[in-house]
Design brief:
The complex is a heterodimer of chains A (541) and B (270). Chain A is 71% helix and 1% strand. With 541 residues, chain A is mainly alpha-helical. In chain A, the strands form 2 sheets. Chain A has a two-stranded parallel ribbon. Chain B has 13 helices and no strands. Classes of the chains: A mainly alpha (541), B mainly alpha (270). Bound molecules: copper (II) ion.
Chain lengths: 541, 270
């Protein structure tokens, strides 16, 4: 087994173990919020659990999956050995040590601040240091991805970088930009407070810095799914990628328009002005461009596949697609969830409607649908696609994989659709228990129970996923690694330098960030508002 | 490397496209929208643009509401980082002032008669400071404590609070600890959502994220605790910010008050 494959397996497994544990916690949280009496419930277990669930799902599962997938792509798409594998392992161990440090701190009850921190709440410093180590590990990955692409370009002057690698590096570059915000918040505000060096914290500043990270981090999680859409799905469907250029444009646009837009997470915050909120919401709207490009390009690629397989008529090609293949099935289900989730996203980014759903369950339901749904179902499909080549064995049962994907899709809809509805009824988020004796709140009860049933289906699906991966151990050995990457209808022979690297786009991101975040951050130093008192959750005064 | 003439248009047109979207959004959001909104609110263009940019306070879409209301504060305490730090530092002044308190609260802050006087030893300095300040301002009524607190200056209140907080709590023999009933334990650890009671320990627990002024309850005399809960319940004591304790106590039954006071008068900690 090559280094990259061993790396990929190690990363995927850490991510998936964290995922399985977090899933159990998630179901328990749903149970606690329902009218049914739940065990182990105390004021602090609930918030510790939510912190652990969020940290594991949003930071551990995602970061490890993105890294593992990137190492795989760097080796297979570029067809050359990974540069500096020792550094890659260093990154892995750093991130793993950080994960363990954070998790131990949470489970000792000293970090119930939820995974987005919420200063002036301050947890034990070990929680934050653990997360910084995870990020540091991922930075090593970013550098390795950029170096791998640079070396390949040096060895292949003038040739276009394979799309899968171009997209992976786009994600690495974006992640370096993304993490600046939260790193500044942690290093200059939160960690000094956790160490007792600071008694006050400027919450407006820390929320603004976190918003810098908050939108782009979601695209960091999402991009592996898009890489699969563009480079693997057309192949799995038996067709070709409709346009390689569209793919490059899409990833470049994600890089640009995921960063100067974070203020849309602060629409109800008083410390940012209307004009800058408007500006960033307008830039947010441009994310629709790469999204629609993708829907169109992948739709066209699948249509090519369907027609090659004998599909006729306006819609006949859809039925002719090989839906029995897990990757194709997952793509179809992911697109459906993307449609629902995208609609919810439009509500969230509209100032007036945001005022109604702000701080309600609507928001939680939205990000579960779009991240837990669209993104994570593609993580499953990616794992199923790569596992034969990672383990050298064929899947013993595709039916079990399909069942798992269907269960995930059904569970996600059963859980999140009532949850959205509860948000519209006014159900609060970040709350452990409800007064179901109140007749208005009692009417929510049945819907919360439906959501809980959805959560249980997701738990079954998640455990089945882990079992399906373990089952590869009994699959028959397959020594012919299947081709996973799709070729384009017109494979590019030469692409403009702008679509073969990131120099131009980095300059544009820098300009946009200065314009969109310059004053919103600078104002805190010009006006110098009073800070909030640090509020420790790991000890009492 | 990008000397290829094919690449130049990319650089130019990508920048033009991205910056023109940006300029359009700025014109719309920074100028046009505030002017139109401001007109409806009776603001001139300059004022509404300044408000939209956050250079002046207020919304560009609404005239600033004028408030004439005079609020009567629950308490006159205001927290600051300096105050919190000062409360962490016991001083000689505190020890001197404490001489006036020992007759009731004991030399080491352990009450001479826990039935009548609360323990101050090991109590959080923040809580002590707030209560003394409230006795002084009249926010918390006590015929005994008010005349004692009134002559104290701000610095003296800080000093005497830091002084008593530094003593270890009273040591209680384990024999004094009856096993709490399940219902009381549930109130302490989980509250009662059907009556909108948050868990006591959400605010009073060892690692709670509750309000900074929430006092430590354990090791305190049961009679004192139940008297306070009854005072909150009747509204006789009303110095708790946002009515946090009055809301809780109002829906506790008398037997629950006794049970909770008994629970916290022990060494049980959570
Ligand atoms: Cu966002």
């Amino acid at each position: 087994m090559t280094h990259a494959r061993r790396l990929a397996l190690a990363h995927f497994w850490i991510g998936f173990i964290a995922f399985a544990i977090a899933l159990v916690l998630g179901v328990w949280q749903m149970w606690v919020r329902s009218p049914l009496p739940a065990p182990f419930l105390t004021a602090s277990t609930y918030f510790s659990s939510v912190t652990a669930h969020g940290t594991a799902m949003a930071y551990v599962l995602t970061t490890f999956t993105v890294m593992g997938f990137g190492y795989y792509v760097a080796e297979t798409a570029l067809a050359r050995a990974l540069p500096a594998p020792r550094w890659a392992w260093t990154g892995f161990w750093l991130a793993l040590a950080g994960t363990l440090m954070a998790v131990v701190t949470i489970f000792s009850g000293r970090a119930a601040v939820l995974f987005t921190f919420y200063p002036p709440l301050i947890a034990s410093v070990f929680y934050y240091i653990g997360l910084v180590l995870v990020v540091a590990g991922s930075w090593i990955w970013c550098v390795l991805m950029i170096v791998a692409m640079g070396q390949w370009k040096g060895a292949n002057p003038g040739r276009p970088v394979p799309l899968a690698m171009f997209a992976t590096v786009a994600n690495a570059v974006m992640w370096l930009w993304t993490t600046v915000g939260v790193t500044l918040e942690l290093l200059f505000q939160v960690i000094p407070a956790a160490l007792g060096l600071k008694a006050q914290i400027d919450v407006g500043l820390s929320r603004t810095l976190f918003s810098w990270t908050l939108h782009a981090v979601v695209y960091f999680w999402l991009i592996p799914s898009y890489i699969a859409f563009y480079t693997m799905v057309p192949q799995a469907a038996g067709g070709r990628l409709y346009s390689d250029t569209m793919g490059r444009l899409t990833f470049v646009l994600f890089l640009i328009y995921s960063l100067p837009v974070g203020l849309h997470h602060l629409l109800m915050d008083p410390h940012q002005s209307n004009a800058f909120k408007f500006l960033q919401v307008a830039l947010t709207a441009l994310v629709s461009v790469p999204t629609l490009l993708t829907v169109f390009t992948i739709g066209a690629s699948l249509e090519i596949a369907g027609r090659l397989r004998g599909g006729r008529g306006l819609f006949g090609w859809i039925g002719a697609l090989p839906w029995e293949r897990p990757l194709v099935l997952a793509t179809g289900l992911a697109f459906l969830m993307l449609a629902f989730g995208g609609f919810g996203g439009l509500v969230n980014m509209s100032y007036g409607m945001n005022a109604m759903v702000h701080n309600t369950s609507w928001v939680t339901a939205h990000f579960h649908l779009i991240f837990g749904g669209t993104v994570v179902i593609m993580y499953f499909a990616i794992a199923y696609t790569l596992w034969p080549s990672l383990t050298g064995r064929a899947a013993p049962s595709l039916a079990a994989q399909r069942l798992q994907l269907w269960l995930w899709f059904i569970g996600m809809l059963v859980m999140t659709l009532p949850w959205h509805y509860l948000g519209l009824l006014g159900q609060w988020r970040r709350v452990a228990t409800f007064n179901y004796a109140d007749p208005i709140i009692a009417a929510w009860g049945p819907w919360v129970i439906v959501s809980l049933v959805g959560g249980l289906i997701l738990l079954v699906s998640g455990l089945l996923f882990v079992r399906n991966l373990l089952q590869f151990a009994i699959g028959r050995a397959s020594h012919v690694p299947a081709e996973v990457y799709a070729t384009a209808v017109h494979p590019p022979l030469r692409v403009p330098a702008a679509l073969n690297g990131f120099r131009l786009w980095n300059v544009l991101v820098l300009v946009l960030m200065l314009l969109a975040y310059g004053y919103p951050l600078a104002q805190f130093f010009i006006i110098d508002p009073p800070g909030a008192l640090v509020h420790r959750v790991d000890q009492r005064r | 490397m990008s000397t290829d003439p094919l690449d130049r248009p990319w650089r130019l047109w990508a920048s033009v496209a991205i910056l023109s979207v940006f300029v359009f959004s700025v014109l719309f959001g920074f100028v046009l929208l505030p002017i139109i909104q401001g007109r409806g609110a009776g603001l001139d263009a300059f004022e509404s643009i300044c408000r939209a940019l956050g250079l002046r306070p207020g919304s560009p879409a609404a005239p600033q509401p004028a408030s004439e209301a005079k609020a009567q504060p629950t308490t006159r305490v205001a927290w600051s980082a300096e105050l919190m730090q000062a409360l962490d530092r016991p001083s000689a002044i505190g020890a001197q002032l404490a001489a006036a308190c020992t007759a009731c609260h004991g030399k080491d802050g352990r009450s001479v008669d826990p039935k009548l006087y609360p323990d101050l030893a090991g109590q959080s300095a923040v809580a002590l400071y707030k209560q003394l300040n409230d006795f002084k301002s009249g926010s918390r009524l006590s015929a005994v404590m008010a005349p004692l607190a009134q002559p104290l200056s701000e610095e003296q209140i800080v000093a005497v609070s830091a002084h008593f907080a530094a003593f270890p709590v009273r040591s209680l023999p384990p024999a004094q600890m009856p096993a709490p009933s399940e219902a009381i334990e549930r109130l302490v650890a989980r509250g009662d959502p059907t009556r909108a009671i948050a868990a006591c320990n959400a605010c009073h627990g060892e690692q709670s994220g509750g309000p900074p002024e929430a006092p430590r309850l354990t090791h305190q005399g049961a009679q004192y605790l139940s008297a306070q809960l009854r005072a909150f319940k009747s509204g006789e004591r009303r110095n708790d910010i946002y009515s946090r304790m009055r809301n809780v106590a109002a829906v506790l039954s008398d037997s629950e008050i006794e049970g909770l006071a008994g629970f916290y008068s022990t060494t049980f900690t959570y």
